[in-house]
Write a structure and sequence with these properties.
Elements: H1 2-12, H2 17-27, H3 36-46, H4 67-70, H5 73-76, H6 83-95, H7 101-117, H8 127-137, H9 143-157, H10 162-169, H11 175-188, H12 193-203, H13 207-222, H14 229-233, H15 242-254
Helix pairs in contact: 1-2, 1-15, 6-7, 7-8, 7-11, 7-13, 8-9, 9-10, 9-11, 10-11, 10-12, 11-12, 11-13, 12-13
Length: 263
């Protein structure tokens, strides 16, 4: 899904919801365990449902899941013209399949965390200062977001184990749980790219999504050179190839996106 978002951004020059849903459909592989909401949204889109109604195919109130946050990485890596454009891009990218306030708010947290991590030198990361900056960026979101970030800080100060962090923050597919658990894993074990992801894996629960989000944050901090070479070798037979993904990332980094309508 991150690949689909990156491809759509590069091709459309901005967040184009219809184009994005077409890219999701192109990459859809049932064996990868896509969530129920994504499956039904894509089915609705294929049947002619308008893009801004597809997300309601599974749940009338909109999905509370973490799918929007998991795939938000490419949006967070683009140089948007203003904080308002950044927020709008995150919201649109999320709302094509996840419209509930919790899903959108959590995606904004993840996107802002990635954006904050990008310019930091790996050795200079101060977890508590990072959380303070992040809380400032998302201060207009619902109060439960700030409460969850404060809980992440408390767990870090208490040197919590992955099991305890998962118990306190939650590790289900719900965005208001797993996004913050992934953030904890990143900040608790940010020494290397691998340490953040392996710590996230020990939490359990929705482990693939939690690892993906922790990995996005660790990747923003450590860069491509931080990825273990044997991990990359394990992707040798995947499509797109690692070489193609690097090229896509370079095009994404060069993108000057078109502004979006802010509503």
């Amino acid at each position: 899904m991150n690949i689909a978002v990156a491809e759509s951004l590069v091709a459309a020059g901005t967040v184009d919801p219809e184009h994005l849903l077409h890219r999701f459909a192109a990459h859809y592989e049932p064996a990868r365990g896509f969530g129920r909401g994504m499956k039904l949204a894509l089915r609705a889109f294929a049947s002619g449902t308008r893009w801004d109604r597809c997300a309601f195919a599974a749940w009338p109130e909109g999905s509370r899941g973490n799918g929007g946050a998991v795939r938000i990485t490419p949006v967070a890596c683009v140089a948007w013209s203003s904080p308002a454009m950044f927020a709008r891009a995150v919201e649109l990218t999320t709302r094509v399949t996840h419209t509930h306030e919790e899903a959108v708010s959590a995606a904004l947290v993840q996107a802002n965390a990635i954006s904050l991590a990008l310019p930091i030198d790996a050795g200079d990361l101060d977890p508590q200062a990072f959380l303070t900056q992040l809380r400032g960026r998302v201060r207009d979101l619902p109060s439960w977001v700030n409460d969850a970030l404060l809980e992440v800080g408390a767990l870090l100060r208490g040197n919590a184990s992955p099991t305890e962090a998962g118990r306190v923050l939650g590790c289900s597919p719900l965005a208001r749980e797993s996004v913050f658990t992934a953030l904890w894993a990143f900040l608790a074990a940010s020494e290397t790219y691998a340490s953040a992801i392996t710590t996230a894996a020990l939490i359990g629960g929705d482990v693939d999504s939690i690892c993906a989000m922790a990995g996005a944050l660790a990747g923003a901090l450590h860069g491509a050179s931080g990825i273990p070479e044997d991990w990359l070798q394990n992707l040798a037979h995947e499509s797109p190839t690692v070489k193609a993904l690097r090229a896509l990332g370079e095009r994404l980094g060069q993108l000057i996106p078109q502004d979006l309508a802010v509503v």
